[in-house]
């Protein structure tokens, strides 16, 4: 009955961990952001491939959903810099 709450759990994990990582590691380096997001996309793709035999696990885990959240974060950074 609470399966719909998984997205809230995934989002909260992402919104807690990613800003802390970016603050600790980036320190204003733009190249780091691009490298970080490419790594997130690659790791997320690997998680999807390695969990393809268990679609429920792949669907509910943050590792296979990270690329979607990272895309939104990357677009937010680009829009902020572009002053859209």
Task: Give an account of the 3D structure.
Pfam families: Acyl_transf_3. InterPro entries: Acyl_transf_3_dom (IPR002656), Acyltransferase_3 (IPR050879). Keywords: Membrane, Transmembrane, Transmembrane helix. This protein has about 80 residues and is mainly alpha-helical. It has one domain. The chain has four helices and no strands. Helix 1 packs across helix 4 and helix 2 packs antiparallel against helix 4. The longest helix is centred in the middle third of the chain and has 21 residues. The chain is globular and about 40 Å long. The N and C termini lie far apart (about 40 Å).
Itemize the secondary structure elements and their pairings.
Blueprint: H1 6-25, H2 30-50, H3 55-60, H4 62-82
Helix pairs in contact: 1-4, 2-4
Summed up:
This protein is mainly alpha-helical and 84 residues long.
């Amino acid at each position: 009955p609470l399966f719909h709450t998984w997205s809230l759990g995934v989002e909260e994990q992402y919104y807690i961990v990613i800003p802390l990582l970016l603050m600790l590691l980036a320190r204003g380096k733009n190249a780091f952001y691009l490298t970080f997001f490419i790594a997130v996309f690659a790791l997320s793709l690997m998680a999807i491939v390695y969990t393809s035999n268990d679609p429920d696990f792949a669907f509910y885990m943050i590792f296979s959903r990270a690329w979607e959240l990272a895309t939104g974060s990357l677009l937010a950074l680009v829009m902020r810099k572009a002053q859209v």
